[in-house]
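Now for a specimen:

…
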Amino acid sequence: METALTVTSARSAAMPAVVDRQTWLRERDELLAREKAHTREGDAIAAARRRLPMTLMPPVTVRGPGGETPLVDVFEGRRMLMAYFHMWHDGKPYEDQCEGCTFSTCHMQMLDYLHARDVTYAVFCQGSYDESAPFAEFMGYPFPWYSAKDSDPALVDGRGFGLIACYLRDGDQVYETYWTTGRGVEALMTSYHALDLTVYGRQEPWEDAPDGWPKVSGHPWRVDGRPTAQWNRPGVTAAQSCCGQC
């Protein structure tokens, strides 16, 4: 029972040293200086990202609810597009689909702020539309879902799925402006950013943490054989999951 083990270890884990408030504030201020430097470096990297050149996309299509859909139409009339390339395992049940892609994109529930900045968010799935679209409905995703299974290879460009790509539209011309994969995809993972602020962090084995800090038992993105986010979906009851606390 992965979540039960995680909850138990967190509740019985070691804790930080206790100091007087002046000492605590002094050490917090030292860390704050590092945090501000990190923020400024992030701002500088983002500024460089905005100055990257772009490259023209060929006239590729994806498959959506209306059939073959030109990439330019995925923008839904907006100027920019951010697409997540979702892995898919053909013929596998929902619980066997990619837990990393589920974790990445299930956070994208509030699209208003992207739309207010003229950005459309969409998913391009590795599987066929007919097989994968019901999965998106099961997950309750509010964003448009397409299949890139039979798209021109230029769309993925050999990078594999589990990818974010960003595009800019100029009339009917589409340009790719940026892409990232690996830990770059953490841009979508607001839960990770929040956990990083807590005393025990993400609780994953790779993290640098003091002795006695809790660690996730089992896969960090799965509970009892399902991607964690699936336990709250219709048709999957909490009674089926670990301890009813999901």
Helices lie at 2-11, 21-50, 71-74, 99-105, 112-116, 129-139, 190-195. The chain is about 30% helix and 20% strand. The domain at 55-185 is CATH 3.40.30.10 (Glutaredoxin). The chain has a mean pLDDT of 93.
